[in-house]
Amino acid sequence: MLGHDTLMNHFKTNFSLMQHHKYSLHDIEHMMPWLKFLYVDLLKQYIKEQQDLQRDQAAARKAQGNLKKR
Fold first, then answer.
1. Phi/psi of residue 5, each to 5°?
2. What is the Cα–Cα distance from 24 to 59, expressed in whole angstroms?
3. Which position among 14, 15, 24, 68 has the lowest Cβ density within 10 Å, counted as fewest Cβ atoms?
4. pTM, entire model
5. Cα distance between residue 8 and residue 15, in whole Å
6. What is the Cα–Cα distance from 34 to 25, expressed in whole angstroms?
């Protein structure tokens, strides 16, 4: 399993790695398949953690705003 199920997903994954995470196409194309899968999995985990943190911070700001209104 390479972390993609279609050719389009393969290209989208490569594009995301290059544009958003600054990998070079050379580096991506020369990774062992299991290593690419591992990096993509780690990036997914990192992105989810960042989204959770942002959600929690937004909820805390909202709660603080509600306390100030009282």
1. -115, -5
2. 37
3. 68
4. 0.68
5. 10
6. 17
Counting Cα atoms < 13 Å in the Cβ hemisphere of 52 gives 6
Q: Any idea which residue has 């942002």 for tokens?
A: 54
The residue type found at 30 is H
Q: Which two tokens stand for residue 34?
A: 């299991």
Tokens 């992105």, located at residue: 47
Q: What is the mean pLDDT of each run of 10 residues along the chain (70 residues)?
A: 73 91 92 90 93 96 80
Residue with tokens 């805390």: 60
CA dist list (Å): 58 to 21, 28, 54, 66: 25, 35, 6, 12
